[in-house]
Design goal:
The complex is a heterodimer of chains A (about 425) and B (about 500).
Chain A: H1 6-37, H2 44-69, H3 77-93, H4 98-122, H5 127-146, E1 151-152, H6 164-167, E2 169-170, E3 176-177, H7 179-197, H8 199-209, H9 211-215, H10 221-247, E4 249-250, H11 258-268, H12 280-299, H13 305-330, H14 337-361, H15 365-428
Antiparallel strand pairs in A: 1-4, 2-3
Chain B: E1 3-14, E2 17-28, E3 32-36, H1 43-50, E4 58-63, E5 66-67, H2 73-78, E6 81-84, H3 96-100, E7 107-108, E8 113-114, H4 116-129, H5 145-158, E9 163-167, H6 175-190, E10 194-198, H7 202-208, E11 211-216, E12 219-225, H8 231-239, E13 259-268, E14 272-280, E15 284-289, H9 295-303, E16 310-315, E17 318-320, H10 325-330, E18 333-336, H11 340-344, H12 351-356, E19 364-365, E20 368-369, H13 371-384, H14 401-414, E21 419-423, H15 431-446, E22 450-454, H16 458-464, E23 467-472, E24 475-481, H17 487-494, H18 498-504
Parallel strand pairs in B: 3-10, 3-11, 6-9, 9-10, 15-22, 15-23, 18-21, 21-22
Antiparallel strand pairs in B: 1-2, 1-4, 4-5, 7-8, 11-12, 13-14, 13-16, 16-17, 19-20, 23-24
Helix pairs in contact in B: 13-14
The chains are: A mainly alpha (about 425), B alpha/beta (about 500).
Chain lengths: ~425, ~500
């Protein structure tokens, strides 16, 4: 561990650190792009819109991140969210008070999570099938309970309308504070802490990476797997409340497709569908990339359905980039003579500059100026020579590759001819 | 005899590792050339360069007198260079014939329909030629590991090979299967195929190889005719120091040492039948037996990994109920699986996560994990077991086999398990790492830990055990003290027939 050289540190950054920069970088670039080319994009209302659009997908995508890291998948999370919301709204319609109705939404989410968890962890059913089933069940339950009628949550100014302020606080002077962003951030921090600093989180990674090894290490796989689905259910409940708060009216049999956006957000953020890899931070970035797209494309006069198109492009692009990055991180750069020359010249220049500045502080201005001239000369020499050396090396490599290819071709031809001759001979004398 | 392959000054670097340094290697027609070295010495890397999995950084490969730049394994195979990997790469659910001809199936009607009958005929002919007794219609997964390997060889040979690379082909084979394999290898050599034989079992080298090349730390130490070097000389070249491999003559267990584990009439699955034995404090109990004798199954039953039908387990005189690995770990039992990639490690997680995996509940402070304690403890064990890794964050898949094994051992030590079941602890591990693991095991028993060691290598059993039990067909057929034990005595118990076992008991 002591011999952690600079080279290894760089490798480590390329392997681990770059991951932290790529997705946020893409988010910033997208935001700036829409800001430059979209109408009124750099504005506070737009920012509020971006955050608004991030809520419900944001909560469920965190839940689904847990499930995916554990090596599973949750297809039911979108419909569970909407089912919970409509059940809460229906309860409200039948005279339930506001707070219990909202709690009921979370309870419903947890209940579905529990059902998924029991089926997956106790009965050892494949998560895909289980959650495909509960996806349809939850959609049906929502319609049955609501009697296929939409549920409307109270609007601002009416009794119970306060709950909208959880997600967007409108102050009387006409300003808007997206308070929900704080809630989203708080849930994200909790999820992050759970994943990185608790037994639950470490076991989630362990189970996703190698379930059997985790079991044989004495990990109670069933318990932790169950909990992961319960967490996903709970985030669906919170997502349901946020949906109700922002859109007021919840229609029955909705939510299909939301789970795919949630999964897409996780994947954009670097979560591996094979399990064992992923972060909450990445997922949040993924969510915001999608919501910037959702708000930015209309600002370019592109209709909203372009969002689906570009989200797809980004999902594929993100995974491609991740694969490329992993490949690059595993590669080793070999220093060519040109690189070595550059390093030595840089050192020389640094030494000269050091001397110049020390002379300057000593009051020897003329000498310092002379050395500065040397520095400039060395710099231009470095630039010219390095460019030439690099170009030569590249040409040389291309030449070698071409030769190798030619030799290769000739060799295969020769082998083929030999084999043909052998065959002919075999046929002649059976 | 002509030289068919010559690799010159091959150089290859990976992240943080100079895997090959100016390595020279050559192979002649019809030659069997053994390639030996510790884990991480560069054997596999050199072969991966040869078949185009890893491109070389510099150096030259000449094959049949031409410069050769393999693009990928497929290209190498087309050119007549095939490899049999240590881990078999085949499809369990397909039949033997389908596995052999995958990608180049026999077809009818211009490639529209598969011609299964023709394929089976071709496979049968191939097996006849290679003198293998295998039914091509059988699904591959039903064959023993030994037979599966034969199939893999047959598959390789069915291409017109000039060079066949065998990466530890004997690691999972019984002695009888090894004999069969060597017969086939000699037969292939007779047909002019050159073979590169990678092995950790040095005894084999004199039996099968014409020449031997020793690699150490990515450099070639020497190439010699096998008739000109002794086993000890090869070992010395591999490790750069002298290792003595001698059987233990006397038990190191104190006479009055308490029994820590008592297994009584354990029954589980098909392969654990009325197994009873004791393990004493500070003892290494060797568990011998042929493949399929029920050793691993017994270990898994004790550990709670598989369901137990009947029988009792006592730990330090107290009867315990072990329903799951969790219970076993809570009772201080740790299990090192024979297949560490599948059952022991999460290769995509870091060294630290793997080390701490069994112990997270003890690292908690309140709800959260005490990260600095995890770091401190795992660092301590990396140091203590001299696990070679650039950092705790390194992903486990980047470590060599020996170091991965040390990580699994350290995992149980961190958990403070005092009954350790080591199932083939040195399988696929080089001589140097092996002796490190032996030293570690002796150290552990001195500290009062007790070890059950399952091994197929009798010299290893004889070298390490204080006492031995032998299994055959799911039953314990014998118990031997180390004093006066011999390989022959163990084998006698290991091959005892079913009736004999019953009549004796």
């Amino acid at each position: 561990m002591a011999d952690m050289t600079l080279e290894i540190r760089m490798q480590h950054f390329r392997a681990q650190g770059l991951k932290w920069v790529l997705a946020p970088g893409a988010l910033v670039i997208l935001y700036v792009f829409f800001g430059l080319f979209g109408r009124n994009y750099f504005s506070y209302p737009t920012l509020v819109n971006i955050i608004d659009a991030a809520f419900y997908i944001g909560f469920i995508s965190m839940g689904v991140t847990f499930v995916i890291i554990s090596g599973g998948i949750d297809l039911s999370i979108g419909t569970v969210m909407m089912c919970s919301a409509i059940i809460g709204g229906t309860a409200l319609k039948h005279g339930f008070p506001m707070v219990p109705s909202l709690l009921l939404i979370v309870v419903m989410g947890v209940a579905f999570g529990l059902l998924n968890g029991v089926l997956v962890s106790r009965l050892r059913m494949p998560p895909f099938i289980v959650t495909l089933g509960t996806m349809m069940i939850s959609m049906g339950v929502g319609s049955i309970v609501s009697n296929v009628q939409s549920a409307t949550f109270p609007i601002r100014g009416t009794p119970g309308g306060w709950f909208k302020s959880i997600f967007l606080y409108l102050d009387p002077n006409g300003g808007a504070i997206p308070t929900g962003a704080f809630l989203l951030a708080a849930v994200a921090v909790i999820c992050h802490l759970l994943l990185s600093n608790t037994k639950l989180g470490r076991y989630t990674y362990a189970i996703g990476s190698n379930m059997e090894a985790a079991r044989l290490s004495g990990v109670d796989v069933r318990k932790w797997q169950l909990l992961v689905y319960v967490i996903a259910g709970a985030t669906a409940g919170i997502g349901g409340i946020s949906y109700a708060a922002i859109y007021t009216t919840v229609l029955p049999a909705q939510g299909q497709g939301f789970e795919l956006y949630a999964i897409a957000a996780a994947v954009i953020g670097g979560t591996s569908l094979a399990g064992g890899i992923g972060t909450i931070w990445g997922t949040i970035i993924g969510v915001f990339i999608m919501s910037v797209l959702a708000t930015g494309l209309p600002a370019l006069n592109l209709e909203a359905h372009w969002q689906t198109f570009f989200t797809g492009v980004i999902v594929i692009g993100a995974v491609l980039l991740d694969m490329y990055r992993n490949k690059k991180a595993a590669e080793v750069r070999i220093e060519t003579p040109a690189d070595l020359y550059k390093t030595s010249m840089m050192e020389k220049i640094a030494a000269l500059r050091q001397e110049a500045s020390s002379r300057k502080t000593a009051g020897d201005g003329r000498q310092a100026a002379e050395i500065q001239v040397q520095v400039n000369a060395a710099r231009s020499e470095l630039k010219a020579t390095f460019t030439k050396m690099k170009a030569d090396e590249k040409a040389e490599q291309a030449r070698i590759r071409a030769e190798e290819r030619a030799a290769d071709h000739e060799f295969s031809e020769m082998l083929r001819r030999k084999e043909l001759a052998q065959q002919e001979e075999n046929e002649r004398q059976p | 005899m002509g030289r068919i392959l010559s690799m010159k000054k091959i150089d290859k670097r990976f992240t943080g590792v100079h895997a090959l340094r100016q390595v020279d290697f050559d192979l002649e027609e019809a030659e069997i050339h053994a390639l030996v070295g510790e884990n991480g010495a560069g054997k596999s890397t050199l072969m991966k360069v040869l078949i185009g999995i890893n491109p070389k950084d510099s150096g030259e490969i000449h094959y049949l007198g031409h410069q050769f730049n393999p693009r990928d394994p497929r290209h190498a195979l087309e050119m007549g260079i095939g490899i049999i990997h240590q881990e078999l790469n085949m499809m369990d659910h397909l039949t033997v014939a389908e596995n052999i001809f995958i990608g180049r199936e026999s077809t009818r009607l211009n490639g529209i329909l598969l011609d299964k009958r023709e394929q089976i005929r071709r496979a049968e002919e191939l097996f006849r030629r290679l003198k293998m007794k295998i039914d091509p219609r059988e699904p591959l997964g039903r064959l023993t590991v030994g037979k599966q390997q034969m199939v893999e060889i047959a598959k390789a040979v069915s291409h017109r090979l000039r060079i066949l690379i065998l990466d530890e082909p004997t690691a999972a084979l019984t002695d009888a299967e090894i004999d069969e394999l060597f017969t086939i290898m000699r037969d292939l050599a007779h047909r002019g195929v050159g073979m590169i034989h990678i092995s950790h079992r040095l005894d084999e080298i004199h039996r099968i190889a014409d020449r031997v090349t020793v690699l150490r730390d990515g450099e070639r130490v020497d190439t010699q005719r096998t008739s000109d070097v002794t086993k000890q000389q090869i070992i010395n070249m591999m490790v750069g120091r002298v290792i003595y491999e001698q059987p233990k003559t006397k038990s190191n267990v104190a006479p009055g040492a308490p029994v820590v584990l008592r297994v009584n009439r354990l029954n589980a699955g098909r392969l654990v039948r009325d197994v009873s034995f004791d393990l004493r404090e500070g003892e290494i109990l060797g568990m011998a037996g042929l493949m399929g004798s029920g050793r691993t199954e017994t270990a898994r039953a004790i550990f709670g990994a598989d369901e137990v039908q009947s029988g009792t387990i006592e730990i330090r005189g107290r009867r315990v109920s072990i329903q799951s690995p969790e219970d076993a770990v809570a009772n201080g039992i740790g299990y090192l699986s024979e297949d560490r990639k599948r059952f022991g490690l999460a290769v995509n997680l870091s060294v630290r996560d793997n080390l701490a995996m069994a112990t997270y509940d003890r690292f908690q402070r309140g709800m959260f994990i005490n990260a600095s304690r995890v770091r401190k403890v795992t660092e301590e064990y990396v140091e203590r077991l001299s696990i070679k890794t650039p950092s705790l964050e390194q992903l486990l898949r980047n470590l060599s086999g020996g170091n991965q094994q040390k990580v699994v051992i350290a995992k149980w030590l961190i958990r403070n398990c005092d009954i350790l079941i080591f199932d083939e602890p040195t399988r696929g591990i080089d001589v140097g790492a092996k002796s490190e693991i032996y030293t570690l095991m002796n150290e552990l028993t001195r500290e009062g830990k007790s070890i059950i060691m399952i091994s197929s290598e009798l010299p290893e059993i004889l070298r390490m055990s204080d006492r031995m039990v032998v299994m055959c067909e799911g039953r314990l057929t014998g118990e031997l003290p180390i004093e006066g034990a011999s390989q022959e005595a163990i084998m006698e118990y290991a091959t005892m027939g079913h009736e004999e076992v019953l009549s004796r008991s």
